[in-house]
């Protein structure tokens, strides 16, 4: 920029406000130097995970071992100095510092010498983990109670008389002598994990199937840098919190059918007792089978009511209850007749099959009230709205859970949403807008129910970008043995995404067609045991659903993926099944992971190449304008500065 600049009135107004933060010429110069230095650092490490489905223990362990990065750092520092067993001990201590310390104390291992040796080991691991960041960023990540001490220890340098090293040794001795070694180890372990992963992306489906989605949400809320691309299971819970009765019934049915009632009852305080009592009175029992039947029949009716209110959804083929032939114990679906395993549906009125009985209405009213009153549920859903979105553009990559609906010929499928015919990015944007209106619009809003209905559509609608299938066959799976009826035909997207040309077209739709851009997807489990690769279209698209949920382990042959994108390139880790936390602590068991580097950058990716770098560059431009305004005398510095 030239030294002479003609400032507009708007620029001067903005620069005057900016000058409040940088009141002198030297303040501006210092900040420009700092920001320019940050641009030339390696980019932070990003981790991508999807389809967690409530598998809390496995997710917690992968968060703690940072998808294997901690072990890599320990091996890098101590690979030729310590045995594998000793390195595993260090790793486990970093993963579970409080629990591991307690166990080692009980075994009589912990003493002053052990503390001293362990603290030095952790400091060395911490140094290498912090090496790619500015001292300022590391300071911001430091635990407050030990921030000054850790900062000193991380930057120890030998001098002529080793005075500084002696000084640091005395610090460690003091920590041990005042019985603060355990707390200091916990602080170092926390910092190492905090620095190992700069940003975490969860590409959808935190909820359902597994037992502790609520505990996963608590972990994510405490995470330093995370975003969530909503999956259809997430949007279902968000719809339930928004008041959609069809979503509420679906959440309850999914939880009961998966034997996962603890998440609802213990996690969110939603009582299933009235439903269990109703199941006992109506279906002759209150076991999982009868409760599932009771809520499923309520669900089928509520879904039908949504479909009848919205002919634009084009889902009349899912109105099934009136098609039942009770005499022949059969039903006609898509022009074919299937035998039913049961037609014992005592709550279905053949003349008005989609109306709830008074008893069913009381059950639903109670569930709706519990969902509305659950403080923890709404805290978690508000986090999903704050940190989440249907898609995200981040560092030239496009992240979304499900699909971008497409036609067989490779064109974008048009969908009628809120009276508009939309496709591609416009469909995603409008869907997200309605999802936010469903939760945040006031109850008195006459369109509140309409917005809530669309949340159910996003969960299972035939053209939903989060679902990606022509239909959800819940009824068929419950009452038809012929598995042909269970088929849920995928959107053509899931064939077309093997084409690099198609993926580039989709990236252009989101203004992201660069040589470094990728689509990062979840939702559909990769059948790794059958040789399927998570890499599609020559690596332009990566499917990272590797089956965290135990129910999918047989399908995928693995127990989840983590995609890692650091300054050197991209690699994907496939994880083997996690045993349990107790064995991880007592036996130093880690999750075995297999790494596949599939894209290496010719030149190291720096902060200047990222979204953060772009923001910093814009900030430098603004500060350069302010500097020129000061030097040209257009604005007067608010404080004293040295004459230049």
UniProtKB/TrEMBL annotation:
Domain of life: Bacteria
Any Pfam family the entry gives: FBPase_2
Keyword ATP-binding set for record: no
Similarity comment text for this entry: Belongs to the FBPase class 3 family.
SUPFAM superfamilies registered for this protein in UniProt: Metallo-dependent phosphatases
Keyword hit for Kinase: no
Protein name (database record): Fructose-1,6-bisphosphatase class 3
Top-rank EC class of the record's enzyme: hydrolase
Signal peptide positions on this chain: none
InterPro entries: FBPtase_class3, Metallo-depent_PP-like
Gene: fbp
Reaction catalysis annotation: beta-D-fructose 1,6-bisphosphate + H2O = beta-D-fructose 6-phosphate + phosphate
Pathway assigned to this chain's UniProt record: Carbohydrate biosynthesis; gluconeogenesis
Keyword field: Carbohydrate metabolism, Hydrolase, Manganese
GO molecular function: fructose 1,6-bisphosphate 1-phosphatase activity
EC number: 3.1.3.11
């Amino acid at each position: 920029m030239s030294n002479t600049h003609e400032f507009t009135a708007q620029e001067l107004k903005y620069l005057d406000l900016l000058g409040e933060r940088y009141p002198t010429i030297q303040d501006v110069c210092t900040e420009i130097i700092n920001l320019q230095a940050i641009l030339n650092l390696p980019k932070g490490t990003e981790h991508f995970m999807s389809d967690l489905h409530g598998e809390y223990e496995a997710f917690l362990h992968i968060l703690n071992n940072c998808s294997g990065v901690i072990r890599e750092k320990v091996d890098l520092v101590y690979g030729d100095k310590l045995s594998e067993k000793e390195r595993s001990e260090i790793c486990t201590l970093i993963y579970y510092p409080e629990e591991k310390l307690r166990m080692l104390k009980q075994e009589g291992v912990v003493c002053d010498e052990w503390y001293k040796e362990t603290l030095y080991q952790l400091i060395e691991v911490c140094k290498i983990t912090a090496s790619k960041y500015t001292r300022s960023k590391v300071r911001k990540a430091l635990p407050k109670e030990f921030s000054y001490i850790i900062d000193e220890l991380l930057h120890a340098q030998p001098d002529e008389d080793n005075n500084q090293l002696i000084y640091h040794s005395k610090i460690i001795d003091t920590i041990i002598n005042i019985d603060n070694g355990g707390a200091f180890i916990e602080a170092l372990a926390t910092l190492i994990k905090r620095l190992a992963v700069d940003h975490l992306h969860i590409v959808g489906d935190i909820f359902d199937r597994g037992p502790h989605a609520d505990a996963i949400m608590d972990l994510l809320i405490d995470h330093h840098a995370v975003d969530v691309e909503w999956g259809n299971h997430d949007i279902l819970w968000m719809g339930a919190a928004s008041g959609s009765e069809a979503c509420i019934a679906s959440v309850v049915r999914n939880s009961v059918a998966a034997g996962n009632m603890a998440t609802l009852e213990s996690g969110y305080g939603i009582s299933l007792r009235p439903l269990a009592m109703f199941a006992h009175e109506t279906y002759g029992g209150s076991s999982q089978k009868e409760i599932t039947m009771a809520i499923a029949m309520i669900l089928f009716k509520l879904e039908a009511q949504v479909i009848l209110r919205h002919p634009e959804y084009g889902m009349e083929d899912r109105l099934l209850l009136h098609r039942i032939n009770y005499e022949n114990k059969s039903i006609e679906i898509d022009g074919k007749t299937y035998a039913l395993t049961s037609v014992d549906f005592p709550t279905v009125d053949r003349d008005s099959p989609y109306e709830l009985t008074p008893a069913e209405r009381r059950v639903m009213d109670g569930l709706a009230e519990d969902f509305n009153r659950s403080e923890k549920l709404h805290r978690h859903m508000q986090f999903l709205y704050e940190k989440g979105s249907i898609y995200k553009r981040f560092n030239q990559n496009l992240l979304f859970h499900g699909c971008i609906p497409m036609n067989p010929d490779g064109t974008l499928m048009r969908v009628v949403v809120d009276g508009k015919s939309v496709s591609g990015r416009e469909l995603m944007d409008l869907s997200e807008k309605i999802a936010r209106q469903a939760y945040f619009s006031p109850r008195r809003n006459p369109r509140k129910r309409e917005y809530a209905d669309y949340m159910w559509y996003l969960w299972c609608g035939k053209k939903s970008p989060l679902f990606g299938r022509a239909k959800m066959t819940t009824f068929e799976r419950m009452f038809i043995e012929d598995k042909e009826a269970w088929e849920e035909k995928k959107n053509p997207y899931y064939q077309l995404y093997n084409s690099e040309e198609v993926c580039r077209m989709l990236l252009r739709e989101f203004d992201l067609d660069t040589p470094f851009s990728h689509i990062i997807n979840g939702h559909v489990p990769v059948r790794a045991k059958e040789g399927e690769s998570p890499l599609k279209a020559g690596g332009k698209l990566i499917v990272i659903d590797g089956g965290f949920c135990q129910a999918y382990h047989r399908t995928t042959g693995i127990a989840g993926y983590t995609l890692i994108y650091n300054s050197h390139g991209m690699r994907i880790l496939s994880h083997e099944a996690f045993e349990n936390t107790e064995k991880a602590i007592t036996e130093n068991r880690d999750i075995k992971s297999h790494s596949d580097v599939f894209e290496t950058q010719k030149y190291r990716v720096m902060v200047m190449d990222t979204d953060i770098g772009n923001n910093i560059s814009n900030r430098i431009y603004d500060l350069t304008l302010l500097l020129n305004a000061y030097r040209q005398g257009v604005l007067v510095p608010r404080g004293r500065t040295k004459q230049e």
